Every structure is written in C-alpha cells, then in structure tokens.
Amino acid sequence: MYYRLTTLRFQCTGCGACCYGDRESYIAVSAAEIERIRDYLGLSPSWFRRRYLVRIAGVGRGIRLESDGRCAFLGADGRCRVYAVRPVQCSTYPFWPEVVATRGAWRGEAKRCEGIGRGRGVARQTVEVELERARVAEAAIKTEQRQR
Question: Which residue, of 55, 76, 95, 102, has the fewest CB within 10 Å?
C-alpha cells in the first residue's frame, strides 16, 4: 500500500467534489446509517426510502445520486445536509483502499479532490483507522445483503 511508503497530505477544503459520482456510482449505506440519517432529517421511513434510496444489485441499498451526479444530500450551498450523520463511505474519504493503494491512484484522485496534497501529513495510524472503519462498514453492508 502506497500510504505505508510515504506521508499522505490531505486537508478538506469543503469543495464538495467528492460528493459527485458517475452513473455507476452510489453511496453505500447500512441499515443503521439509513436510520441515523432518516432520524436526523425527521422523515418517515417510506418518504425517506422513496426520496433518497436506490436498490443496488448485489449490494442492497444506496443513497441516490441526482441526474447531474451530485449526492442527494449535497445542498445548494455545496455543503452536506447530513454531515453530522454522514455514512462511513463519506467520512473515510479519501482514505479508501483503492485510493491509497498506489501513488498513481492517490495522484489520480488528487485531480478530483483539491484537498489531496494540502495541509499537514496524515499519520499512517490515522489512515489505517479510516481504512479499518471502511472495511468494517463494507462487511456490515455485505452481511445485511446476505440476510435479506
């Protein structure tokens, strides 16, 4: 893993670029994350499901992206409307296995995220904690999928 060979620098600028995806993108969420977000917004389960969730084949449910690729929770001001309860997928960015695996992947992601390469170096232990959080969340989602 690239992050073990160097010190990664990252400082979020709040630009919101990480809140966009393409047609194949989605935001993976567990049932617990769905409930936390729904409660935070004060919405009924059925309204929340219709407005914000999509079914992802082989994965379960995900947060819907708008037609322009933006997350349904990204406000017009460029800020996350559910930041306090955002999914682990969001809170661990950019420390995802596929992003920190190689120098090329890290630099490639820097073309999308202006915060990569900025600020102080991030301790290797911090990166590893975020990678583990992402791994645990992904495993929980897979377990939920198998139980359905």
Answer: 76
Amino acid at 114: E
* pLDDT, the chain, mean: 94
d(CA 141, CA 32): 10
Strand runs labelled E in the chain? 8-10, 27-28, 53-56, 60-63, 116-122
* Percent helix, strand and coil across the chain, each to the nearest 5: 45, 20, 35
**Is 35 exposed, middle or buried, given 0-12, 13-18 or 19+ CB atoms closer than 10 A?**
middle
pLDDT one-digit tens code per residue, 45-97 = 999 999 999 998 877 889 999 999 999 999 999 999 999 999 999 999 999 99
Query: Tell me, what's the pLDDT at 88?
Result: 97
